[in-house]
Design a protein that fits this description.
- The structure is a single chain.
- The chain has 113 residues and is an all-alpha fold.
- It has seven helices and no strands.
- The termini are far apart.
Length: 113
């Protein structure tokens, strides 16, 4: 549990650093910050790659069958981790550009931008 918190905290610090470097106003730095913050999920699913025995024990002691634990752990492949990271980053980038366009549209309409 401490490892999970440390990974999430690390991504939060990277996100804050990126936003700070852009003085919280740079669209590019804010996108990078959002990408870092979106990777918090690695902290939650990371134990499937680095603490398989703990996950197995936790799953079985929680009342799930051993086959379920083995099936869940078998999904933790390097390819799946890569796909999760890439999917998260692509989703972050796409949603950042959509949000930017929406904000510009509505701020211009409101006379703010």
């Amino acid at each position: 549990n401490v490892l999970i918190a440390l990974v999430i905290f690390g991504f939060a610090l990277l996100a804050e650093l990126a936003a700070y470097l852009g003085r919280y106003k740079s669209f590019r730095w804010n996108i990078l910050s959002y990408c870092f913050m979106s990777l918090w999920v690695i902290g939650v699913i990371g134990p499937f790659w680095v603490a398989r025995d703990w996950i197995r024990e936790l799953t079985i002691t929680s009342g799930y069958p051993a086959e379920y634990a083995e099936g869940a752990i078998s999904l933790a492949t390097p390819l799946n981790l890569t796909l999760i990271i890439l999917g998260t980053l692509i989703g972050s980038l796409v949603s950042s550009f959509i949000a930017n366009r929406m904000l510009k549209k509505h701020f211009v309409r409101a006379g703010i931008a």
